[in-house]
Amino acid sequence: MKKYEIMYIIRPTVLEDERVALIEELNNIFTSRGSEVLKTSEWGTRELAYEIEKHKKGYYVVLDVLTTEEARAEFDRVVRIKEDIIRYLILKDER
């Protein structure tokens, strides 16, 4: 298993209950596939550096995960489909 840092931005128009459910659903992708979410940091709503899909703000979430390649690939697949995720980044943690 490898360690990754994952950041994604949720559309600012998503209601709080839906946002909590979305974060839980994305975390479950890892936990249901034998991986471990080490840390979940919700940075909250912040200004975007540039407009994305006509949004000037977004809700930032950062995950530290110890994961298998299968779980990482599934997360990548699911997050591309979700319309409420406007941007994401997966970085391998070499520390």
- Please give the radius of gyration in angstroms: 13 Å
Provide the CATH superfamily.
Answer: Ribosomal protein S6/Translation elongation factor EF1B
CATH class: Alpha Beta
- When the domains are counted, the total is 1
Counting H and I runs of at least 4 residues, what is the number of helices?
2
- Whole-Å distance between the termini? 14 Å
Average pLDDT metric: 94
Name the strands of the widest sheet in spatial order: 2-3-1-4
- Examine the coordinates and then state which fold CATH places here, giving the name of the CATH topology: Alpha-Beta Plaits
Number of strands: 4
**Basic shape:** globular
Largest sheet: 4 strands, antiparallel
Q: Which CATH architecture?
A: 2-Layer Sandwich
Sketch the topology as an H/E string, one letter per element: EHEEHE
Report the β-strand fraction as a percent range.
over 45%
Q: Work out the helicity level.
A: 25-40%
Which stretches are poorly predicted, pLDDT < 50 over at least 5 residues? none
Task: Quickly give the structural class.
Answer: alpha+beta
Looking at this protein, list some descriptive labels.
Alpha-Beta Plaits; alpha+beta; 4 strands; 95 residues; globular
Describe it:
It is a single chain. The chain has 95 residues and is α+β, with helices and mostly antiparallel strands. The protein has one domain (2-92): Ribosomal protein S6/Translation elongation factor EF1B (Alpha-Beta Plaits). The protein contains two helices and four strands; from the N terminus they run E-H-E-E-H-E. It has helices spanning 16-31, 69-81, and strands spanning 2-10, 36-52, 55-67, 85-92. A four-stranded antiparallel beta sheet has the order 2-3-1-4, covered by helices on one side. A hairpin with a 2-residue loop joins strand 2 and strand 3 (55-67). The longest helix is centred in the N-terminal third of the chain and has 16 residues, at 16-31. The protein is globular, with a radius of gyration of 13 Å. The mean pLDDT is 94.
